[in-house]
Amino acid sequence: MSSVLFPEGFLWGGAIAANQAEGAWNVDGKGPSVADCSLFKAHVDLKDYKAQHAISSEDVAAAMASDDIDLYPKRRGIDFYHRYREDLDLFAEMGFKVLRTSIAWSRIFPKGIETEPNEKGLQFYESLFTEMRQRGIEPLVTLHHYEMPLHLAQLGNGWCDRAVIDHFLRFSETVFRRYRHLVKYWLTFNEIDSAFRHPFSTMGVLTDRIPEEKREEALWQAMHHQFVASALATRQMREIIPGAQMGCMVTRRLTYPETCAPENCLLALKDNRENLFYSDVQVFGAYPQHRRLAWQRDGVNVVMERGDEEIIRQYTVDFVSFSYYMSMVSSVDAERREKVGGNLTTGVKNPYLPTSEWDWQIDPVGLTHALIDLSDRYRKPLFIVESGLGSRDTVEPDGSIHDDYRIAYFRDHILAIAAAIAEGVDVMGYTPWGCIDIVSLSTSQMSKRYGFVYVDCDDNGNGTMNRTRKKSFHWYKDVIESNGAVLNK
Question: Which residues form a coiled coil (predicted)?
Fold first, then answer.
């Protein structure tokens, strides 16, 4: 094995999201968010991606009529809201240089429409970011991570309503000003490309409120509003925090052709282009011609106000961040092929890759591929802000947790990052997802664990919430301390 080298200043760390970690869903003035309507769905078929994320107006009404935190586990999270200092101590012990987290919009503006922010919410994040900096941990903060205020989702069907842009900009300006001395790395929208996969969590849109023949158009309209808001928030950040950096964040759904048949290769090319559309807009500052032609072909009319396209063109991002969990396969014969599930969508099984307990295909080489491809396409710094293995952990009688499977996963993926760096790719850092066990996005389980730190809480909310270092905790600590050099051994 050739020598593994990471640049000086490489940002090693981890990632969580407010809605999956904080809990305290109705504490200190916080309003309900779309995440507080997420039901526990461990029984859902792993290959049925739509069922995992499906939510209706009736479901939302039922959620708001209930105070149950067991049916809706994201409401309790892992109590990070009260235990964040303890958790930051553990992250600092591992040597984290950065922690990616998000600000729950409804902690700052409970309904999203207020003109004055909730001071207790502002104080919480000020304390969180201050404590991070005191431990030498750089905050990487996502503004909109599947947690918009529920009131805005109900008021105008989320981002379908252009008025949400102004509400969002009031929120972003407020936090930029409050945390201008604490945060220099920002992301606007988490996995902005997920709008069509789970529109309610991404954009607060309930599709059952839209006539079926108009749903696609409505989602593209909401997406346009998010692109405009992202650009305007980038302008705000640059005016308020000189020297700060803004990134976009997308799901990298790297897709291979099933075979070298030209039809499969062309299909994979188009699938990759469709996935990269969202970062293309935020990096290049324009809608690509293929998307405009598709809208015209499909009869989709996206209303753009005067100046919208200039705003998108003028305020592009400084770096590209992305999540990477698995690769995909494109096949013109997909209907006749075996399928696998995943956090992205159901797809054709790749016979050359192993599959996790949750039916995700594990492909570290694909991460090298993705990094080189993104670097060649955008010529901007890249940041892997999510990656990880969801798995069940066993606590031994002595309290230890031997998660060698997680160590193997991260070893292979970190080596894949090093391989891309050796090819000249500018990688800013790596923040594995769920660095401490948190409630999962799709099914709201605790048993699907990602962390280096074990949280004593089961799927039904039973447990002490005590934190325990897993074997992978000590391994990752050594990786960070050596800046990856330990992988040469």
Answer: none
